Amino acid sequence: MIKKRLVVLISGNGSNLQAIIDACANQILNAEVVAVIANKADAYGLLRAKNAGIPAIVHPFHKGGNRTAYDHSLAELVLQYKPDFVLLAGWMRILSQAFLCQFPGKVINIHPALPGKFPGVHAIDRAYAAYQQGLIKKTGVMVHFVPDEGVDNGPLICQEAVEINSKDTNETLEERIHQVEHRLFIDALQIVCNQT
Ligand code: GRF
Known about the structure:
Layout: E1 4-10, H1 15-25, E2 31-38, H2 45-51, E3 56-58, H3 67-79, E4 85-88, H4 97-100, E5 107-111, H5 123-132, E6 138-145, E7 156-163, H6 170-195
Parallel strand pairs: 1-2, 1-4, 2-3, 4-5
Antiparallel strand pairs: 5-6, 6-7
5-O-phosphono-beta-D-ribofuranosylamine (GRF) binds next to helix 1 and strand 5.
């Protein structure tokens, strides 16, 4: 079967990107990362891409710039790589329809919380604070399609709950969530890559 072409958008560390690169290399995924694009020049994930021999491109949004124009240009860039899927792996910008309309059913995001919970930034910190206030006992991870501008919301591919316990600190919870992310993103990609 022909390998699926993945373009991965990142803004930072890229530990999820690394999990995807490794899963492709180990043939756990019938896919290849054909490009990594960051909106920040100092995103560590760019180095991960270069180390794996994958094109690593910086496409910065300049302060005061036009969001629609940026999303158009980003779409043009991504289209050059003919992706089967566009993965948001710690991509810290909300994409508008100017981008999304070019990739219907192809954009996938990972969020470190359960569906409908803690959308947006600092989801793990906010879940930990809610646990400390006695409001929740668990949080989790979700992987979902991105059909529109709804933040961390869209048709679910996979989810997994993560219990929070009294010995947890913010850091231990964060570490466990990231471990789940690295596994769940691959589970989700196996599902979508084998479906089409
Ligand atoms: C992850 O927690 C992801 O769910 C969120 O941003 C973080 C990115 O981490 N959207 P990394 O850059 O993959 O290490």
